Amino acid sequence: MEKGKRNWVFADGELPPKDGTEIEAHESLMILNLNDEPATVKMTILFEDRDPVEDITIKVEGKRVKCNRLDGPVGEEGYQIPFGQYAMVLNSDLPIFAVFGRLDTRQANMAFYTVQGHTYE
User: Fold this and answer.
1) Beta-bridge partners for 103
2) Which of 35, 48, 75, 119 is deepest in the core (most CB within 10 A)?
3) Are 75 and 66 in contact (CB under 8 A)?
4) Which of 101, 105, 86 is nearest to 43 (CA)?
5) Pairing label, strands 64-69, 118-119
6) How far is the C-alpha of 116 from the C-alpha of 1, rounded, in Å?
7) What is the rounded CA–CA span in Å between residue 27 and residue 34?
8) Helix (H), strand (E) counts: the chain
9) pLDDT tens digit string along 94-120?
10) pLDDT of 12
């Protein structure tokens, strides 16, 4: 039985801008690999107003979790996601689990939430 899925979609990315608050607004992507072998994950970022950025590579060792802050350089290529709306697609060579989280400090009542992505074959 496979532990996880190979293809994940997160349709609601909105990287909040830095606002100088004590707790920095950010988004995170957590990838869990329950396999014995390392997983290679290819990330695609899609936008409303520009071409997609494809093949951002994230490696996750076997039986490990990789936590990626999305407000800094992402993947082996060090891609910087711009502030604002985007969507993210993950394609892995092995089954994985993926969860997306956002800490938004733009209001006095901060919001933190996590979302498990949608999977497809």
Assistant:
1) 26, 112
2) 35
3) no
4) 86
5) unpaired
6) 20
7) 23
8) 0, 8
9) 999 999 988 776 666 666 777 788 999
10) 87
Total domains, the chain: 1
Under a CB-based contact definition with an 8 Å cutoff, are residues 8 and 119 in contact? yes
Reported as a single tens digit per residue, the pLDDT across 2-15 is 899 999 999 988 88
For residues 45 and 90, the answer to whether their CB atoms sit within 8 Å is no
Tell me the Cα Rg of the chain. 14
CA 56, CA 53: separation in Å to the nearest integer?
Answer: 8
Cβ–Cβ under 8 Å, residues 18 and 59:
no
Domain range for residue 30? 5-119
Tokens of 3: 């532990």
- Closest listed residue to residue 90, CA positions, set 47, 56, 43, 54: 43
CA atoms within 13 A on the CB side of 62: 4
Q: Share the mean pLDDT of the chain.
A: 90
CATH of the domain at 54: 2.60.290.11
Burial degree of 72 (CB within 10 A; 0-12, 13-18, 19+): exposed
